[in-house]
Amino acid sequence: MRKLTLSREVWPLRNVFAISRGSRTRIEVVVAELEGEGVSARGESVPYARYGESVDGVLEAMEAVRGEIESGIDRAGLRDRLPAGAARNALDCALWDWEAKKTGKRVWELAGLDEPQPVITAYTLSVDTPEKMGAAAREAAGYPLLKIKLAGKNDLERMAAVRGGAPDSRLIIDANEAWTVDEFVRFTPRLAELGVEMIEQPLPAGQDDPLRDLERPVPVCADESCHVAADVEKLRGAYDFVNIKLDKTGGLTEAIDLARAAREAGFRVMVGCMLGTSLAMAPGTLLGSLAEFVDLDGPLLLAKDREPGLRFDGGRVFPPERSLWG
To answer: φ and ψ at 182, to 5 degrees?
Structure first.
């Protein structure tokens, strides 16, 4: 018999984090811990209001399956009991950690994945005025890959300032559903000239169809439009990439299925994150070998991370040690 402990934690951010939908100065996460039989295992998730989630609602959903978790339900059973989302993510990742610690194997071995290696992770710049984003880019110019949050109006001016501040960094951008079709048509040729390599979710989810008929000078990535493997088919012709986030997929189990389904369907893969600690990022590092872009910089945006946490060096994120997860 194992014991499930659920908790909520608040982690301050180093600076204000702003996207097209708003800003924040801290994050609130949910942690699931399984203990018993000489094993202690953990998983973390970040409830996301964009998907109708709250910390209270996620904790309530997790409480509803407490008995089954403590009685030994496996990951397949959990997927049948909870929908994709933050509640299932924390529990799924805790079950992976549990199995790894019980068997003495690493999660990547159990999952049939390649042994994870250090990979370049994007470093995210918040949306702001062009002047402030140019200054932020100068400060972050040592990172080889920058991810730029945008919001619509003045985005070309923002990106010109960013490129001027970080002339040697690779750039990807994330509009977080903020653009119109007209803005997409106007912005993308200039963004291609600025060396932008990918545009994440330019149009609102559910309003993707126009992308099928538009020229895409820069490859486009589905984020809010893609949660699980079953979403892949409907994205054909509209997107070039899919962004896999464990808080959307409901854990590593579905994330692996989504990565494989996306690649089989001809999509390129990005592995992303919500804001979170190293415990939330650790499972995502296992998908690095399947991804062209990795965006697991959440801990770098915190005022303080967990101890021990993931190692970051030279723009790279390293796989987790056993003492953290997996």
So the answer is: -60, -40
What are 29's two structure tokens? 């996460």
CATH class (in words) of the domain with range 3-104? alpha beta
Q: pLDDT tens for residues 141-193?
A: 999 999 999 999 999 999 999 999 999 999 999 999 999 999 999 999 999 99
**pLDDT tens digits, one per residue of 99-124:** 999 999 999 999 999 999 999 999 99
Question: What is the Cβ-side half-sphere exposure of residue 240, based on CA atoms within 13 angstroms?
Answer: 14
Residue 243, Cβ density class (10 Å: 0-12 exposed, 13-18 middle, ≥19 buried): buried
For residues 84-111, one letter each, b for 16 or more C-beta atoms within 10 angstroms of the residue's C-beta and e for the rest, the string is bbbbbbbbbbbbbbbbbbeeeebbbeeb
Check pLDDT > 90 for residue 23.
Answer: no
Identify the active-site residue in 132, 149, 234, 248.
149
Query: Which residue type is seen at 237?
Result: G
- The domain limits of the chain are 3-104, 119-317
Beta bridge partners of 313: 316
pLDDT number for residue 3: 97
Active site residue 245: yes
51 has a pLDDT exceeding 90:
yes
Compute CA distances 158 → 38, 69, 96, 135, 152, whole Å.
53, 48, 41, 11, 10
- 3-104 shares its CATH topology with 119-317: no
CATH 2.40.160.40 fits 119-317, yes or no: no
Q: Which of 101, 147, 245, 248 is catalytic?
A: 245
Known catalytic residue: 149?
yes
**Size (the chain), residues:** 326
* DSSP label at residue 48: -
Structure tokens at 131: 């002047």
Match 């910390």 to its residue by tokens: 55
Res. 62: pLDDT tops 90 = yes
Coil, strand, or helix at residue 271? strand
Alpha-carbon gap, residue 23 to 3, rounded angstroms? 36
